[in-house]
Specification:
The complex is a heterodimer of chains A (193) and B (589). By secondary structure, chain A is an alpha/beta fold. Chain A has 8 helices and 6 strands; from the N terminus they run E-H-E-E-E-H-E-H-H-E-H-H-H-H. The longest helix of chain A has 16 residues. The radius of gyration of chain A is 16 Å and the shape is globular. The structure holds thiamine diphosphate. Thiamine diphosphate (TPP) binds next to helix 4 and helix 17 of chain B.
Chain lengths: 193, 589
């Protein structure tokens, strides 16, 4: 039996940005859409401001929860500089969605290294589809900075073949009653951006 | 029904499905969530024990009383539990006992990368190793069945990528709990004095032979015959990676990695032309298979260190098979982003002070270990949990007068309770001159806020007696005891200096709750701001290594030596005000 090619998404950013919750939602949406899904993440020190990544892989039968270099189709970067750390994972026609947020690592704080300037133009000159979005700003507009992760899912939804109603169902289920509306608004704002 | 679950949630479910209602463990990434999830099921008894040795002994006691039980820990936890481990292999378990070891190839959150499959062989205990989340659940259940059948403890080995991956899982039926507990006596089996242990030793070998036979027909040791040119022998997550890139090869997938099914391996070897053994870390399967006289390719092409991914396996085999390697994009050099102490972390103030006192700080394991980095550079060693106190004492004894006032051990509250008490007693007994600082942030922060004997709550959420650390330290015989709030830099510095100057051992207890600790309700304070005109660019505040404080360069102007100024990112500032305390120019408000 031959299986459809497994697709891979990499969510990457900094501890505390809601990356793992976001990747859970992606998985739930894919399952609702009838896919087999596996994801893998490292969250030992997720809250301590270190790098956090989550691989999401889907097709009709997925074996590995971790992607090999050169195989990621979509990179969803929650922090701008973090994009650069994972380019070797991407296919050459990968889509890159990048949050405009800049969070300085210690060496930059201390003035020992520079925060890379012109990251987005660098990406644009090397990849066909690069979408930059100020998710933090949109999240504030939606009513809570913490929904920036869901704003980014709104952008991601544009680049995946899953019905919006499925996304919205899953998001509604993922949050308790009092956070539901605000997250749906955040998703829609990201999707319209 | 399929449910999206993590490997750890799946293991907890598997244990529960097996009808098990008793578990003891000590937190440690990547194992922690197994206990936390299990504790949520109805009708269970689950406890955080003070360390892994105690956890295993608690589980052994329950098993001897007829209760199926689980002991759960990370890979290095098994080192702590190794003493009872090797002998419970002799006694057997009466009921059923499963020990979970969660290994961490790539050291994502550990101090070493030991391969705990070696413990299975060393202690002569069978070990199952799931390759994905579904198997994590199913194997947990099987492990208990094997334990009951063979009267042996059974290891279930997970790795970070099994524990922390998620996938849809088909749930199974829950075996209803049956109370089979009673007090039974059997000295020949449970009193391991030499005369009895010698006899049990023979039983262990018999059991191992029976398990070898069992392995030949065990449902989770499976041959998948495809292309007969290439056969892969593998287990655990490596199987999933290999299947991803080489779906057409033939496989012998071992669900049980110890003991091995020799006949099955020989049979597989006879049916394929070339064999690769794919395993992360040690050549554990490879050496045993080579010892059977079977030719295989293993560590000559696969790395010994760090975890695999599908690409590593593909590249290793393809190079060997002379195909073109997979193209890999160039990696950009960018600044590291190591995990850091949080804004407002109570450890920051203490290490800011200690870093300036020119002592040797024997560190320990916990969030505070992160202070070793620039700019704090607050600890100078870290070996294992509890090592700080013994090392500080040893160093101070060895240095004699050269070490006076210069050797400090620092240890977190959970770590002190885990393995810091006997070494502190030793400091009293053997007349130490070192200083010990206990960093009491009211929780086990590093692994995600677990309760411990000094927090006043159990894993099941019940209120309980809370250990009085100060009274315990006094009871051990320490006479110089001081309690400080590490947030007050000036007094912290003064008290540390005073205690360093004293003869005999001293203990300082630095008390302030973790900022992430919800029960402590650290009030939400206003973020601070730096006035760029008042800031003279001295960089002292940057020395705190607080994530929201950064350096802003400015173009040099005439008559001014100022190269830049510090700024605070208000979104991340927690308003603790340490930076205000260190600013000499009153620029922070
Ligand atoms: C033997 C062993 N068990 C468990 C761990 C995982 N672990 C690392 S640090 C730590 C406890 C940290 O708590 P504490 O000492 O209170 O310091 P904090 O992180 O709260 O600052 C644990 C459980 C380990 N490294 N070694």
């Amino acid at each position: 039996m031959t299986h459809s090619k497994t697709k891979s998404i990499l969510l990457a950013g900094v501890g505390g940005q809601g990356i793992l919750r976001a990747s859970d939602i992606v998985c739930m949406a894919l399952i609702e859409a009838g896919m087999d899904v596996k994801k893998s993440e490292v969250h030992g020190m997720a809250q301590r401001g270190g790098c956090v990544t989550s691989h999401v892989r889907y097709s009709d039968k997925v074996h590995a929860p971790l992607s090999k270099h050169g195989s990621i189709d979509i990179l969803l970067a929650f922090e701008k500089m973090e994009t650069l750390r994972y380019l070797h994972y991407l296919t050459k026609d990968a889509t890159i969605i990048v949050n405009a947020d800049e969070i300085y690592p210690p060496a930059v704080n201390l003035g020992e290294s520079d925060y890379h300037p012109d990251i987005v133009s660098f990406l644009q000159s090397n990849y066909k589809i690069v979408k930059e979005i100020d998710a933090t700003e949109l999240a504030k507009k939606a009513g809570n900075v913490k929904t920036a992760n869901v704003v980014l899912l709104g952008v991601l939804a544009h680049h995946m073949d899953i019905k919006l109603s499925v996304w919205e169902d899953v998001i509604a289920k993922a949050f308790p009653e009092k956070l539901r509306k605000i997250n749906l608004t955040a998703f829609q704002m990201g999707n319209a951006a | 029904m399929k449910v999206l679950m993590s490997g750890n949630e799946a293991i907890a479910r598997g244990v529960y499905e097996a009808g098990v209602r008793f578990a003891a463990g000590y937190p440690g990434t990547p194992s922690t969530e197994i206990m936390e999830e299990f504790a949520r099921y109805e009708g269970v008894y689950a406890e955080w024990s003070p360390n892994e040795k105690v956890a295993l002994e608690v589980a052994i006691g329950a098993a001897l009383a007829g209760e199926k039980s689980l002991a759960c820990m990370k890979h290095v936890g098994v080192n702590v539990a190794a003493d009872p481990l090797f002998t419970v292999s002799y006694t057997g378990t009466n009921s059923a006992l499963v020990i979970i070891t969660a290994d961490d190839p790539s050291l994502h959150s550990s101090q070493n990368e030991q391969d705990n499959r070696n413990y299975a062989k060393f202690a002569k205990i069978p070990m199952l190793e799931p390759s994905d989340v579904q198997e994590a659940k199913d194997f947990a259940k099987l492990a208990f069945a094997i334990s009951s059948q063979f009267d042996t403890p059974v290891f279930l080995r997970s790795t970070t990528r099994v524990s922390h991956s998620k996938a849809p899982v088909t749930l199974g039926d829950i075996t209803p709990y049956e109370d089979k507990t009673n007090i039974s006596y059997n000295a020949a089996k449970f009193v391991m004095v030499p005369a009895n242990a010698r006899l049990r030793r023979v039983e262990v070998e018999k059991r191992l032979n029976a398990l070898k036979e069992f392995a030949e027909t065990f449902s989770e040791n499976k041959m998948e015959m495809n292309n007969p040119e290439i056969g892969i022998i593998t287990a655990g997550m490596s199987y999933s990676y290999a299947k991803d890139v080489f779906p057409d090869f033939s496989y012998l997938k071992l669900g049980m990695v110890y003991p091995l099914p020799e006949k099955m391996i020989r049979d597989f070897a006879a049916r394929v032309k070339r064999i690769y053994v794919i395993e992360e870390l040690d050549p554990f399967l490879e050496e045993q298979i080579k010892a059977m006289g079977i030719k295989v390719i293993g560590k000559e092409i696969f790395p010994y260190t760090l975890e695999f991914d599908p690409g590593i396996i593909e590249n290793a085999i393809n190079k060997y098979e002379h195909a073109t390697p997979h193209p890999v994009h160039k990696i950009h050099s960018i600044p590291h982003r190591p995990p850091n102490l949080c804004p407002g972390c109570p450890h920051r103030g203490l290490f800011y002070v200690l870093g300036k006192l020119k002592c040797f700080v024997a560190g320990d394991i916990g969030c505070y270990t992160l202070s070793y980095m620039k700019p704090l550079e607050g600890i100078n060693s870290c070996i294992c949990m509890g090592a700080s106190i013994g090392m500080a004492h040893g160093m101070s004894k060895a240095l004699k007068d050269k070490g006076r006032g210069k050797v400090v051990g620092v240890i977190g509250d959970s770590t002190f309770i885990h393995s810091g008490i006997p070494p502190l007693l030793n400091m009293v007994y053997n007349k130490s001159n070192a200083l010990v600082i206990i960093l009491d942030n009211s929780t086990t922060a590093m692994t995600g806020m677990q309760e411990h004997p000094a927090t006043g709550f159990t894993l099941l959420g019940e209120e309980t007696k809370s250990l009085d650390i100060k009274a315990l330290v006094a009871a051990l015989g320490i006479e110089n005891i001081r309690v400080i709030d590490p947030h007050h830099l000036k007094t912290t510095r003064e008290i540390i200096k005073e205690e360093l100057a004293k003869d005999g051992p001293s203990v300082i207890i630095a008390e302030r709750p973790c900022v992430l600790f919800k029960k402590a309700k650290t009030e939400n304070k206003k973020p601070f701001k730096i006035d760029p005109d008042k800031c003279n660019g001295c960089r002292v505040c940057l020395g705190l290594g607080c994530p929201p404080i950064s350096w802003k360069k400015i173009a040099k102007t005439e008559g001014s030596k100022k190269a830049g100024y510090a700024v605070i990112d208000e979104t991340y500032c927690n308003g603790c005000g340490l930076c205000k305390q260190v600013c000499k120019f009153d620029a922070i408000s």
